[in-house]
Structures are given as structure tokens and as C-alpha cells.
């Protein structure tokens, strides 16, 4: 029987689990609610309890489980043991790896959730067969992960791939949750698109009763000029940022995930047009822009892939 690992993706509202073998086959999936009370101090025990109840105390071939990979919404310490900060969970220097390993007696690998999603898309998703890619997720914010030669670019401060905080040049002054002004995610996230649309619709002909990004793309399909301007502003800022990344590290694939990616070609085609306009001539036309394929499973696939890679190169961390 193939060896199995537990992949975990910790989110602000729920924690997703999957039992995955070394070939990437999922045999079991489940989830629990994220308990953020008391600065998230109950989350490690909730994870341990969920694994014990679903697997270790059951009949799911526990002897074949070799380890655990966990994606978390924040940076990881250089030694791989601490979640340095996870604002949505209330964590600061949470020793998650050590706590889980001690209780379950299984080795644990931690990584940032966006990096996990990037690895997942490389292993089993839109970037299969590619070793150099940029993954960008367009949700309430803009997250990202960069893979070079098959490995996550973590950077000196474990902040590599924070695409959402690339500065944007604009006459506006949009304050980002990180404290800086005019970060990319204030323009190119779902929230950024909604704000842009609201500002453009000065007479509130479309937006007075509330609206969603789905509405914006529906209006775009109907030929609404304001929606076209809003989407173009969103993709222009994102395209500038991605073109800069492409000119710097020259990857094979850009994979776009998150809620806005559901717009498909309405988003991706104008985005690629902007990128093409600004990349080095040798790059133009020689890379792909694809919608992510794995959805909510990307992080758990990537967490398991990170564990597998760590076992193959145990002295690199």
C-alpha cells in the first residue's frame, strides 16, 4: 500500500484536511471550523483532535501515514518551527510544528498557504510539468507564491511572493491592511475591484443597492462602459506587477486563482494583453497565463508536496 500523508490548509473560517498518497491520490477529506477565540490558542488542539478522531483512532491504514504538511496564513520562521504571525488567527510565534509533532508522533512541515497553493498547482494543477511559475490568488486580498526550479522562493524574511504588497502608482490613496498605501491588493483584489467600480459609478446607477464582483463581470459582458473601465484598471495594475516579476525571474507560467479567477477569459485575456505589452520581447508569447485548477484543494496538495520534498532533501532546512 502506498505511503500516505495528511495535508492541512488552515484558513480563517475553516481548516481543511486530506489523506493523500505519494502519487497525489486523495482517499479522505474533511474539515472543521477554525476556532479563533483566545488568540487562536485552541487551534493546535483542534487539529490534533480532528486527526485523532478521523484517522489515527480509526481504520484508515494509520501505519501507512508518514507525516503531515500544513499550510498556514502567514510567514514561517527560518527554522520551520514557528508561525511568525497569522493575523486572522491571532497567532504570533506559534510553535505549531513542535506541538503537533509531540502529540501525534509524526513529522510536520509548515509553509505559507499561498506557497502551498503554488506547489499544489505545480504538482497536480494548472502548472503540471512546470518548474518555474508565479501563482497569484485574487480574493479579498492578493496573495502569491513564486516557484523557481521546483522550489518555493521564501526570501530572507520568509516574505517572498507577497505579490499583493507590490506598490502601485496612482493618484488615489488606498490604505492597505498592512499599513502601507497603494499596495497592489487595494486595486487588484475582489475588494479593490468593488471599490473601483463604486468610485466610477458616481451617480450610483448600478451600485446603489450593493453589488458583487460577479455583477461587475456580468455588466462587462453586457457592454457596460463603467464595468469595462473598472476591470481594465484592475488588470492593468496587476499586469504591470506581473510583467515586472516576469522580467525579473522569467517564469514559464502564471497561474491565477481566487474568486476573481472565476471570471475566466474576461479577466485572463486582458491581463495577458497588459503583461505582453510590458515584458521583455524574448518573453512575450513564450509563457502561459492560466486559471488555477485545484480550487480549495490546492493548499492541501501543496502542503503534502512540501512534505515529500523535505523528506527527499532533509538537510536543506
TrEMBL record:
Entry protein name = Glucokinase
Give its E.C. classification number. Answer: 2.7.1.2
Fetch the NCBIfam families from UniProt: ROK_glcA_fam
Q: Which family does it belong to?
A: Belongs to the ROK (NagC/XylR) family.
GO terms in the biological process aspect are: glycolytic process
Top-level lineage group: Bacteria
InterPro entries, per database record: ATPase_NBD, ROK, ROK_cs, ROK_glcA
One term of GO molecular function: ATP binding
The protein's enzyme class = transferase
Q: Which PROSITE patterns match?
A: ROK
Q: What does UniProt give as GO cellular component? A: cytoplasm
User: Which Pfam families did the record assign?
Assistant: ROK (PF00480)
Per UniProt, the keywords (alphabetical) are: ATP-binding, Kinase, Nucleotide-binding, Transferase
Q: Is-annotated flag, keyword Coiled coil?
A: no
Amino acid at each position: 500500500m502506498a505511503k500516505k500523508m495528511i495535508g492541512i490548509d488552515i484558513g480563517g473560517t475553516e481548516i481543511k484536511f486530506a489523506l493523500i498518497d505519494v502519487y497525489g491520490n486523495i482517499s479522505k477529506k474533511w474539515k472543521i471550523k477554525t476556532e479563533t477565540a483566545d488568540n487562536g490558542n485552541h487551534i493546535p488542539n483542534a487539529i490534533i483532535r480532528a486527526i485523532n478522531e478521523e484517522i489515527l483512532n480509526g481504520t484508515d491504514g494509520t501505519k501507512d501515514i508518514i507525516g503531515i504538511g500544513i499550510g498556514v496564513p502567514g510567514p514561517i520562521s527560518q527554522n520551520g518551527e514557528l508561525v511568525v504571525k497569522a493575523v486572522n488567527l491571532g497567532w504570533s510565534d506559534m510553535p505549531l510544528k513542535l506541538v503537533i509533532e509531540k502529540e501525534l508522533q509524526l513529522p510536520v512541515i509548515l509553509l505559507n498557504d499561498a506557497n502551498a497553493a503554488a506547489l499544489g498547482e505545480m504538482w497536480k494543477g494548472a502548472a503540471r510539468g512546470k518548474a518555474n511559475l508565479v501563482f497569484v490568488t485574487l480574493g479579498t486580498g492578493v496573495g502569491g507564491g513564486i516557484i523557481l526550479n521546483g522550489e518555493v522562493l521564501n526570501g530572507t524574511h520568509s516574505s517572498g511572493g507577497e505579490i499583493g504588497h507590490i506598490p502601485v502608482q496612482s493618484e488615489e490613496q488606498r490604505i492597505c491592511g498592512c499599513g502601507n498605501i497603494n499596495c497592489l491588493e487595494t486595486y487588484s483584489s475582489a475588494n479593490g475591484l468593488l471599490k473601483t467600480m463604486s468610485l466610477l459609478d458616481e451617480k450610483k446607477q448600478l451600485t446603489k443597492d450593493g453589488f458583487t464582483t460577479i455583477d461587475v463581470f456580468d455588466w462587462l459582458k453586457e457592454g457596460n462602459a463603467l464595468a469595462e473601465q473598472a476591470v481594465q484598471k484592475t488588470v492593468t495594475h496587476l499586469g504591470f506587477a506581473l510583467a515586472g516579476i516576469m522580467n525579473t525571474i522569467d517564469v514559464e507560467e502564471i497561474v491565477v486563482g481566487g474568486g476573481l479567477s472565476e471570471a475566466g477569459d474576461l479577466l485572463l485575456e486582458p491581463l495577458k494583453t497588459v503583461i505582453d505589452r510590458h515584458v521583455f520581447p524574448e518573453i512575450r508569447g513564450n509563457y502561459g497565463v492560466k486559471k488555477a485548477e485545484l480550487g480549495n484543494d490546492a493548499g492541501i496538495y501543496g502542503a503534502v508536496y512540501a512534505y515529500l520534498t523535505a523528506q527527499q532533501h532533509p538537510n536543506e532546512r
